[in-house]
């Protein structure tokens, strides 16, 4: 599943999925931080799922927070972004590379 947004360059990998660096992914995520608190909430993650063309955004938003939010505060903050990267690669069809 490919992104349906124009927020970042259209870097498509060999298998048709979007390929982003970690830095690009973090910058893209923060575009959905509507309250500008530096954290991603369940409703903001739901918007991310919708922006990628994903289905079941409510369920995936809840599942994404559950899998990424290790301290249980209901948000994904900077220290938990790595967990959200794993979720995005598995559930949203995004390839995130370190370079």
UniProtKB/TrEMBL annotation:
InterPro entries named in the record: EF-hand-dom_pair (IPR011992), EF_Hand_1_Ca_BS (IPR018247), EF_hand_dom (IPR002048)
Domain of life of the source: Eukaryota
Gene3D superfamilies to which the protein is assigned, alphabetical: EF-hand
Organism of this sequence: Deinandra increscens subsp. villosa
Domain EF-hand: 20-55, 65-91
Recorded GO MF terms: calcium ion binding
SMART domains: EFh (SM00054)
Name this protein carries in UniProt: EF-hand domain-containing protein
Keywords from the named record: Calcium
Pfam families tied to this protein: EF-hand_5 (PF13202)
């Amino acid at each position: 599943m490919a992104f349906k947004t124009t927020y970042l360059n259209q870097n498509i990998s060999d298998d048709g999925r979007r390929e982003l660096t970690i830095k690009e992914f973090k910058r893209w995520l923060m575009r959905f931080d509507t309250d500008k608190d530096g954290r991603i909430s369940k409703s903001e993650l739901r918007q991310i799922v919708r922006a990628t063309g994903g289905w079941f955004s409510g369920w995936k938003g809840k599942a994404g927070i559950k899998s990424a939010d290790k301290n249980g505060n209901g948000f994904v903050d900077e220290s938990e972004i790595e967990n959200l990267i794993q979720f995005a690669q598995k559930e949203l069809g995004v390839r995130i590379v370190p370079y």
